[in-house]
Write a structure and sequence with these properties.
Elements (H helix, E strand, L loop, with lengths): L1 E7 L1 H5 L3 H11 L2 E8 L3 H7 L9 H8 L4 E8 L2 H9 L12 H5 L12 E3 L3 H12 L1
Antiparallel strand pairs: 1-3, 1-4, 2-3
Bound molecules: adenosine-5'-triphosphate.
């Protein structure tokens, strides 16, 4: 069975939406293998977001991700990588489909980075790499 890394990002934790997001994940039927509250340092975030280094939102993104704790979740199930990304919705919460986490619970706050509540690995390779970064 497949595994993925899910993060409830600092905006989700700060807004008290961790439970609502976990409820959607559990209702879908995926299995929580491990879960922890993490306050990542810059080095961990540089590894996690290496593919975005140099992009205009990179520094705001790293700052945002250090603004408070995130909840890291090791999640398991058949096709959970694709399935969680479908639950999460597209990156921009303004246009993410209603019914998704970002579409229902997120919005644009006019900041330099999209505060879009969650992260989910986008491939088996990313999942293995990111699970090592957050649970290694
Ligand atoms: P994630 O990887 O966090 O699940 P994603 O795959 O939808 O999200 P990525 O393209 O990997 O998005 O970008 C990582 C994160 O960087 C986004 O979740 C968002 O917080 C921020 N981000 C991405 N693109 C932009 C943008 N154009 N403007 C502002 N912030 C952005």
């Amino acid at each position: 069975t497949e595994e993925t890394l899910v993060l409830v990002k600092p905006d989700g934790v700060a807004r008290g939406l961790t439970g609502a997001i976990l409820a959607r994940i559990e209702a879908k039927g995926y299995a929580l293998v491990d879960i922890r509250l993490v306050e990542p340092d810059r080095e961990r975030l540089e590894k996690h977001y290496a593919e975005h280094a140099g992009k205009p939102f990179y520094e705001p993104l790293l700052e945002f991700m250090q603004s408070g704790p995130s909840v890291a979740i090791r999640l398991a199930g058949n096709r959970v990588i694709e399935g969680f990304r479908s639950l999460a919705g597209t990156t921009d919460p303004t246009t993410a489909a209603p019914g998704t986490v970002r579409g229902d619970l997120g919005r644009d706050w006019g900041l330099a980075v999209q505060q879009n509540l969650v992260h989910g690995s986008d491939s088996p390779e990313s999942a293995a790499r990111e699970l090592g970064i957050w649970f290694g």
